[in-house]
Amino acid sequence: MASAGMQIFAFILALLGLFGATVSTLLPNWKVSADLGSNIITAISQMQGLWIDCTWYSTGMFSCTLKYSVLSLPAYLQTARTSMVLSCVLAALGLCLASLGLKCTRWGGGVQAKRHSAIAGGVFLIVAGFLCLVPASWFTNEVIASFLDSSVPESNKYEPGGAVYVAFVSAGFLFVGGAIFCTSCTGKQRGPQNCPPNNKQQCCSASQPTDNKAEYSLQDYV
């Protein structure tokens, strides 16, 4: 079984994963314009995110526009929006359940209840990591495929931005944190029973193996 220190480490990783997934969802640089030398005169950089597009000009001015229409967006962008939002929600729920299953805390009920809470929180975190990894991978594949397409003009070529890398790292944190929580309480404790002070003699005698009793009874007949 993982120690309480490993659970705290997993909780910190999951918290970083939730923070990173939320930040990457809101960042506007999921893909940035490729600096190929032809469009650097009018605009320094163009960025496109899940919710907003921004353009920085050489004069120092910048403008951003929101993506109001959902149906006009490509399928991979709609999927990325939905998956990232679900990832953040599930990661938050997983952290709440995992906090109840921490061994170093007093809330969350008994040992059995903490075990169930830790495993459930770990499952939520793993699913959240998967939902964060899928849109990042799909989005990166679409950007690279468009960049390598010779029919696309150089002014419309983009490269994966920093938000994609943040999403990949966040997915890894969620995976590792969820895996630690799932394996932290899978085993069952085995050891001597805790006997109350009043019935300590009866409890300890009952915990002794029955082979000794059988051996004593055989000696009586001999």
Q: How many individual helices?
A: 6
Radius of gyration: 28 Å
**Which ranges are low-confidence, i.e. pLDDT below 50, for 5 or more consecutive residues?**
189-196, 199-222
Sketch the topology as an H/E string, one letter per element: HEEEEHHEHHH
Would you state the CATH class of the domain at 4-39 and 74-187?
A: Mainly Alpha
> How does the helix and strand content classify structurally?
alpha+beta
Helix content: 55-70%
The CATH topology name of the domain at 4-39 and 74-187 reads: Butyryl-CoA Dehydrogenase, subunit A, domain 3
State the end-to-end distance.
47 Å
CATH architecture annotation of the domain at 4-39 and 74-187: Up-down Bundle
| Largest beta sheet: strand ordering | 4-3-2-1-5
The average pLDDT score comes to 79
Molecular shape? elongated
The biggest sheet amounts to: 5 strands, antiparallel
Extended strand count: 5
Strand content: 5-15%
Model description:
Belongs to the claudin family. Residues 1-24 form the signal peptide. The chain crosses the membrane at residues 84-105, 117-140, 160-182. Claudins function as major constituents of the tight junction complexes that regulate the permeability of epithelia. Keywords: Cell junction, Cell membrane, Membrane, Signal, Tight junction, Transmembrane, Transmembrane helix. The protein has a domain at 4-39 and 74-187: Up-down Bundle (Butyryl-CoA Dehydrogenase, subunit A, domain 3), CATH 1.20.140.150. The chain is elongated. β3 (52-57) and β4 form a beta hairpin. It starts with a helix and ends with a helix. α1 packs antiparallel against α4 and α3 runs antiparallel to α4 (162-184). Helix content is 58%, strand content 10%. The chain has 222 residues and is of the alpha+beta class. The chain contains six helices and five strands, in the order αββββααβααα. The longest helix is centred in the middle third of the chain and has 38 residues, at 111-148. It has a five-stranded antiparallel β-sheet with strand order 4-3-2-1-5. The protein has helices spanning 4-26, 75-100, 111-148, 162-184, 200-206, 210-221; strands at residues 31-33, 43-48, 52-57, 62-66, 158-160.
